């Protein structure tokens, strides 16, 4: 298991980050993609929908386009513009393919001018924050399951609830080109941010994620532990990025 590392400074705060991905047992290939930038505080995860060429094309296209257009983005308008470019590119790629071409996109974009960061959310990958011992989910899953559980349509572990997890209401490549959710978050010493695909969130329980993120000071070791857990408890592709604020 290869772990990528990066280190940045945002308004005098030192950020250390680690990222990794595993294939799991369900698929022959990994349809997750991540980017941990070497030059600037930028981390991104994407999860292709399905297991065909469309999944591969969507993840790679979305990642390449977002990283390129988010290079200088420091505000909400620029980030929405970057995702709009992603939508155009993934939709165009899908016209050349016969199968579903779509993916999720969740990003952490440091805002050096404000000592903060933007979270960009499209789909059902996730961003968590550990602060003062509490692990919080900062993003919303853009799925029918999220709407259904929130509104009492069905229980989370019921057959309809489980099936609805695979019905995304927003994603890169959606014909309606939906906008992302954007959240600006402060960066406090001791904060830890976890970006992950559903291969982590669905296969490793909240308590275990919290235990690993809070208990392991080294982000690389924490990512390795989480991904190893997914290989024991589940079979989906899994990707995690952990960022520590020093």
Describe the structure.
Strand 7 and strand 8 form a beta hairpin. It contains 7 helices and 11 strands. Helix content is 32%, strand content 29%. The longest helix has 19 residues. The chain has a single domain, classed as PPM-type phosphatase domain (Phosphatase 2c, domain 1). The protein starts with a strand and ends with a strand. The chain has a 6-stranded antiparallel beta sheet with strand order 1-2-11-10-7-8. Strands 3-4-5-6-9 form a 5-stranded antiparallel beta sheet, covered by helices on one side. Helix 1 runs antiparallel to helix 2.
Radius of gyration: 17 Å
Class by SSE composition = alpha+beta
Overall pLDDT metric: 94
**Which residues sit in consecutive blocks of at least 5 with pLDDT less than 50?**
none
Please give the oligomerization state of what you see: single chain
**Record field, number of beta strands:** 11
Helical content band: 25-40%
Total tally of structural domains: 1
Let me know the largest β-sheet.
Answer: 6 strands, antiparallel
Cα(first) to Cα(last) distance is 26 Å
Q: Tell me the CATH architecture.
A: 4-Layer Sandwich
User: Strands of the biggest beta sheet: in what spatial order?
Assistant: 1-2-11-10-7-8
Task: Give the CATH class.
Answer: Alpha Beta
What does the overall shape look like?
A: globular
């Amino acid at each position: 298991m290869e772990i990528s590392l990066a280190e940045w400074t945002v308004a005098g705060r030192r950020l250390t980050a680690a990222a990794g991905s595993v294939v799991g047992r369900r698929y022959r290939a990994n349809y997750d993609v991540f980017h941990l930038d070497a030059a600037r505080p930028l981390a991104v995860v994407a999860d292709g929908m399905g297991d065909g060429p469309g999944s591969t094309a969507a993840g790679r296209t979305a990642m390449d386009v977002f990283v390129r257009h988010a290079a200088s983005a420091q505000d909400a308008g620029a980030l929405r513009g970057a995702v709009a470019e992603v939508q155009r590119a993934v939709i165009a790629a899908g016209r050349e393919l016969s199968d579903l071409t779509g993916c999720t996109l969740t990003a952490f974009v440091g805002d050096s001018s404000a000592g903060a960061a933007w979270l960009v959310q499209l789909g059902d990958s996730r961003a968590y924050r550990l602060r003062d011992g509490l692990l919080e989910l900062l993003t919303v899953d853009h799925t029918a399951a999220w709407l259904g559980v929130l509104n009492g349509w069905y229980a989370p572990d019921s057959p309809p609830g489980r099936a609805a997890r695979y019905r995304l209401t927003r994603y890169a490549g959606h014909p309606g080109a939906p906008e992302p959710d954007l959240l600006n978050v402060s960066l406090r010493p001791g904060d830890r941010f976890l970006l992950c695909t559903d291969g982590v969130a669905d296969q490793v329980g909240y308590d275990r994620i919290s235990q690993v993120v809070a208990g392991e000071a080294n982000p690389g070791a924490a990512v390795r532990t989480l991904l190893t857990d997914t290989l024991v408890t589940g079979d989906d592709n899994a990707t995690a990025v952990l960022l520590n604020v020093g």
